Amino acid sequence: MFDTEEQKPIIPIFIDNSSSILYHDVSVKEKINELIANAPTSKEVDFEYFFFDAEPKKVSLDSVINLSFEGGLTNFEKVFNKLRTEERYITSAIILSDGIVNDGSSSIYQVEELNFPIYTIGIGDTTKTTDAYVKNIFNNRFIYKETPTVIAAEISNQNLEDEDAVVLFKENNRVIESKQIKLNSSGVNRVTFDYYPEEAGKQLITVEINRLENETNIENNVQSKYIDVIENKLNLLVIGGSPSADFSAVYQSLNAIDEFSVSKYLQISPTEFTGDNLTQKLDSAEVIVLVNFPYNNTPTNIIQQVKESIEKNNTPFFNLIGSDIQLLNLSQVQELLPFTQSGKYNELYLAQPSFSEQYSSMILGDELRRFNNFELPPVAYPNVGFRVKPGSQVIATSRINNISTDFPMIVSQNTPTNKSITLIGSNVWRWRITSERREINFFDQLIYNFIQWLRVADNQRKFFVETSKEIYAVGETIEFIGEIYDDKLEPIRDASIIVDINNSGNSFSLKLEHENNGIYKGELNISYKGDYSFKAEAEIGGIKSKTYNGKFNIGQLDLEKFETVMQENYLEMIASLTGGAYYYICLLYTSPSPRDRTRSRMPSSA
């Protein structure tokens, strides 16, 4: 309960300070000042003023005349959150805006729980403008260096049908291709460009449409995004000790991924294998996958050839060991395994994985960690007394009859001579079948994440710094997130991480602060548009030991300039759901027609 006798109630007034406001009417500042100057006053309540764009900021009444309309984003969600968490008594709230939301959630149903009305005042014009703009850019998820691909763009127009336009495709601000189009009467054109990336890494691609006659907004004629160009397809070799459903599931899962080039070598009898040129395949393999290999009847020379290739080339590998462990010849590859066996095979358990909070995040990712592993069918797990070798990390243990055990199911190794992941259990193919109708196939994503973890260079995996986005609007806060681990992949909590940010003519430096468990964060506001590169350097114990490089852009995507038509319906719904009312600013001090009278009454302090 609020003590209204000791503290006067308040009426917060939120004024949209984003740059889209200026597209409606250059005199909007005068209209707002006039509105505030003529607003009702009361000794019973306090009026409080806020500017809002990306977030609300309290200002004095005198500061209202200093509206700049330079905000790069409009976030209503934070306004609603501000109202919901206010501990003082609010009689009503007022929002002046064009209702164009381009940051945060646009859902208004969270305002239903407010116990006071919101009065909204519309600023802008609901008339559709004459405009052509780049709405979307589409590209393949996997793009490879020196491999042709197609970039598609969606060009939208309003009131410009049958007009001729020129559309440019650029890479790192260099024109790659130009196309002339006739704008469609449907309002949408799809334009494709042939793209042959010559360099790997992050590339900034841009689609731009020329300025057309009578076009009212040219700021949305360009859109950009970063894409990752992959050096080339990753060569994988899948070796199996015998045909099985698990071998097929692993092979099919990997073979379905476009960024992998997968070959196989499968034993089908004591002397016969599918596939040939094992030596060549081993030499070209960047990651090796072993499925129930080797068997007791696998020729010794084949076992030694595979083992020596892994050791000589330091090839990372994924190892799936099934429940028929008595049929496997693991003693021949014991040096490669992350465990020893302390007993003989005696029985099988039906087990599900129980993922470690400490070690699973680096391999599973957020999507798989949210997956309900209780839904996974149990696998056949052999009881042979596995003992994990020092330096290995247990990603998942076995849960048997819903009881957690310390029996290792998924184990990783990362030593100077061995980088591997081992999964113990048979019938893992059932994981794939069970989750194939879900949005995320657990098995496919798990195997993919294993390979990605194995392929990444060690120094990249132990230390990286990224921005929360790759392209920011002007005025938007740049957030840096870093993670750092030691050689045992234990989080380092006492590192000093400095990020140096540069573009032509501007440079900045930022120290990231440790938040928890080896995760560091920092924020920076930069008001200059352009392409930026950054170099993060980690210092541990007074010694600079690790670096990481990245890129981001400010201003290529100005969300405030994409949509400039006032969203009157949005403002009306906010008012309606809270028991308030909607008003149009241009009608507040004029004699409205009967049709407009409901839009012209000024909200009172009551």
Structure, described:
The chain has 606 residues and is α/β, with parallel strands linked by helices. It folds into four domains: 10-126 and 565-599, Rossmann fold (3-Layer(aba) Sandwich), CATH 3.40.50.410; 131-231, Immunoglobulin-like (Sandwich), CATH 2.60.40.10; 234-453, Class I glutamine amidotransferase (GATase) domain (Rossmann fold), CATH 3.40.50; 460-554, Immunoglobulin-like, CATH 2.60.40.1930. It contains ten helices and 34 strands. The chain has a ten-stranded mixed β-sheet, sandwiched between helices. Strands 26-28-31-30-29-32-33-27 form an eight-stranded mixed β-sheet. It has a six-stranded mixed β-sheet with strand order 3-2-1-4-5-34. Helix 6 (361-369) packs antiparallel against helix 8 (442-455). The longest helix has 14 residues, at 300-313. It is elongated. Residues 590-606 have low confidence and may be disordered.
Features:
606 residues, alpha/beta, Rossmann fold, Immunoglobulin-like, 10-stranded mixed β-sheet, 8-stranded mixed β-sheet, 34 strands, 16% helix, elongated, disordered C terminus
